[in-house]
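Notes to self after the Tuesday call (sharing in case useful).
The group wants a holo model before anyone commits to mutagenesis around the pocket. I volunteered. Ligand is S-adenosyl-L-homocysteine. Logging inputs and output together so the record is complete.
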Amino acid sequence: MGAVRREDFVPQNWRDYAYRDEPLPIGKEQTISAPHMVAIMCDLLCVEPRSHVLEIGTGSGYHAAVLAELAGKGTVYTIERFEALAEHASKLLPANVVIITGDGSLGLSEKAPFDRILVTCSAPEIPPPLLAQLKAGGRMVIPLGKEFQELYLVRKNRQIAKEAHGAVAFVLLVGKYGFPEAPHDEAANRLRF
Ligand code: SAH
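Result:
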């Protein structure tokens, strides 16, 4: 994390707050996670130098940049549902990160299976396509719930092991295997970069 400049990933008017341990708004009613949450999630995920990684929820791109550092020669695929956020992140991310616009709850079957899957928005349940696209021996980190959310580490071996790691607060996964879209709020949806 020391190698990634968080200030580059936050909107200009929030730059002074870039190194506070807090989530910050990035437009489209979305947020860049607090640094401690990025660290906790990376720690649970155990990304290795050649890991083939999938992230759902590119947002600012900050977490993808940290994953790219950890994956080294591996590739990080990251899916964002808002084109404007994906486009902005694409200007900041290194060559081993591939950004895709679409519904990440469907995963990315053409690049599966993945060693590691990170979901940075909260889902009602583990999206079945993501579980199917996780390698045997692989790890997934995903927040689950709506008003009350918990962070889970999911390990796929012969059986699926699901371990809770405390209460969290994420924006919701919106998509086929996520929550339905909330009513449109024009002002909140304006991009703030
Ligand atoms: N990892 C991000 C955190 C972004 S917040 C960062 O470091 O900044 C979560 C993101 O998930 C939001 O940008 C939101 O638009 C996105 N999202 C929600 N549902 C999604 C879906 N079905 N597919 C892809 N992205 C989704």
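Two things stood out.
The mean pLDDT is 95.
The first strand starts at residue 24 and ends at 27.
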